[in-house]
Each structure stands twice: as C-alpha cells, then as structure tokens.
Design a protein that fits this description.
single chain
Length: 124
C-alpha cells in the first residue's frame, strides 16, 4: 500500500508542470469563448434594477410552487384522514399556514413594489 501511495504521489508531481501549462492555455481560450457567449446571450446588458426584478420574480415563482405543494399535501392528508380528527386538524393547520404565508409574501411584494415605484417617480 505504501509503494502504491508513493507511485501515485510521484506521478502527480511529475505531471503537475505539464497540466499547469495546459490549464493556462485552456483558460485563455475559455475566456474568449465565455466573452462570445456573454455577447450572444446578452448578459451584462441589463440594469441592476432589471436583474433584481428577475431575481424577485424567480423567488416568487419558487414560493408559488412551495404553496402549491403544501396545498396538495394538506389536501392529501385531509382526504386520507378517514375521519381522524387529529389528521384533519393537521391538514387544516398546514393549509391555513400556507395561505397566511402566501398572503404575507404577496402583501410584502405589493408594498415594496408600490414604494419602489413611488421612489422612482419622485427621483425622475
């Protein structure tokens, strides 16, 4: 086992200078390819406000999916409760919590959107 370890370490040390040169050449080529991709995709052409708006939109989409999954889960619990009051109460609590969470998130979005619009119109 010791000889195998020495062989692997020795091989790694012997190959290291060649791989460093290859990685440097490859990195220079990769930089030019990435700038081509950047221009083609249009990255860097958006304002920070547009980027933040897209991030908020994605975040709200994910939260919508979470709400949908919680609603389906609560409905499944309710339907499979078979008259068990504890399971029905648990399903109701999950459903109520999901709806309250959705209302809070949408209210926060509406308030922040209103404030941002008012700030933009006040500064222009």
């Amino acid at each position: 086992m010791n000889k195998l370890k020495q062989l692997v370490i020795g091989t790694a040390i012997a190959v290291m200078p060649f791989s460093a040169v290859a990685l440097t050449v490859h990195a220079a080529d990769l930089t030019s390819q990435l700038s081509d991709v950047n221009q083609t995709a249009g990255f860097g052409t958006k304002t920070p406000q547009e980027t933040i708006g897209q991030l908020i939109s994605v975040f709200l989409g994910v939260l919508g999916i979470v709400f949908l999954l919680l609603t389906i889960y609560a409905g499944f619990l309710w339907m499979t409760a078979a008259g068990d009051d504890k399971k029905v109460a648990s399903a109701k609590n999950i459903l109520i919590s999901a709806v309250v969470g959705l209302v809070v998130i949408l209210s926060a979005y509406a308030i922040s959107s209103f404030v941002i619009q008012q700030l933009q119109t006040a500064t222009t």
